[in-house]
Amino acid sequence: MRRYMIVVGMVTAALLAACSEPGTPVAGSSGTPSPTTSDTDGASLKVKDPIEPGRFLAEPCAVLTRAQSTGLGWEAEGTPHKAGQKNASCDWDTKDLANYSFGWLDEYNQSITDTYRVFKDNSAYFEPISIDGYPAVFHSGTDNRQRGHCNLVVGIRDNLTFHVSALGGPGPEACETLREMATLAITNLKAG
Questions:
Q1: Domain extents for the chain?
Q2: Where does the signal sequence lie (predicted)?
Q3: Between the CA atoms of 38, 43, 44 and 50, what dihedral angle is there, to the nearest 10 degrees?
Q4: Strand partners, 44
Q5: Quick one: which of 121, 148, 143, 123 has its CA closest to 26?
Q6: Which of 110, 127, 128, 134 shows its CA 20 to 30 Å from the CA of 18?
């Protein structure tokens, strides 16, 4: 419970920082993700193949199988938070005390377009990408990717997104791990 409160506090602080003061981007390294789309007018943000998340809204830890989470080097079972409620999330710890999380951003029917509107000009980094054809963006109010802190938001419907985040991962590789995690989650969400 204590770790959950720390993670929630850090995520909340990062979101508030992104809303209140622009960060200063830090030059990326070869391990940081690079943008794959430059269209920010909304055309590339339209979800072309919407996913119905079904049971995963209430069971966020089910977005990864035990084999997938251990394959990523994490504990087999994630720890659920707010299961069965809006904005449910799950986090997995590693042997090195890093923390990776998956959570829904559905409290206000948040779309990827909303993420762009709120954070595009108020982030230390804002890097649009695509995850298996779904619009996504790496962003945060502070750039701590060199320390293994990374955040990725993915749109799976025009009114629903999920985020995956890393706290204390292995440097900039944490962002690549989030890309892999999001890809696995999309595959599992589609399979139901």
A1: 2-22+37-191
A2: 1-20
A3: 170
A4: none
A5: 143
A6: 134
